[in-house]
Amino acid sequence: MDFIAEENRIKIDLHGLTKDEAKFEIINALEYSPENIKQLIIVHGYSLRKYSS
What we know:
By secondary structure, the protein is of the alpha+beta class. The protein has one helix spanning about 20-30; strands at about 1-5, 10-15, 40-45.
């Protein structure tokens, strides 16, 4: 996960995280970000994983 602070915004890249991991990271960013943060940018994606049988 990438966490980038830019002026009044935070950018979080959630690629590769599970739903629970992503939820934790978003809540953590909201709780611990400085008060001057006005925008949270979330970069996410979906990948279809191939499972072998």
